[in-house]
Fold:
Amino acid sequence: MDDLQANIQGVRARIAAAAGRAGRRTEEVTLVAVSKTVPPERVDEALALGITTFGESKVQEAKAKIPLVSSRARWHMVGHLQTNKARDAVALFELIHSVDSLKLAAELNQWAPRAGRSLPVLLEVNVAGEASKFGIKPEDLTAALRQIVNLSRLEVRGLMTLAPFTENAEAARPHFRRLRELRDSLGLRELSMGMSHDFEVAIQEGATIVRIGTALFGERKHNEPEK
Structure:
């Protein structure tokens, strides 16, 4: 637990410093601890150390893990979500970060009332136009939002993006800035952007949610794609 405690303290200090440099309050930034491949007992350790919100990338892994973790934990879906996993996602997650199509939004909207709830979501935007990434094209975002906000059981709270991976965090800044500009133009609130290697730049550019895994839990093996 000592390494985890030091990691959490270090990440929180870096969040506070980045927010301070941008003239923002630390409380404006929500830390989501990305816990994919992290065992339940390790998640409980993080919870005991003050982390409250965890992000999962695979529905099947989350479905097995969440019942084994304290009910105090809050859960976000931060990875690509297939439409055939929408029913389980609605039941498992407080917030879906990765709504990347009208088809997925409609499927989530269908299952939300059956779970007796409305579902907060973020729209994933492929700001950099990478062929390997999911997400709505920036030029299609306004039209997509117009349709998705008409789905009565979804609450669109903001936008999410994955910046291209680079060792130089500054290279991600234009992508984060572009997402902020899109968010502002649409009158939304949340910006989920920034991971372990670039979250400080994301905060300086307005991130309200950062998704951090490696800097908290260390390097992990990658699990298989979800079927």
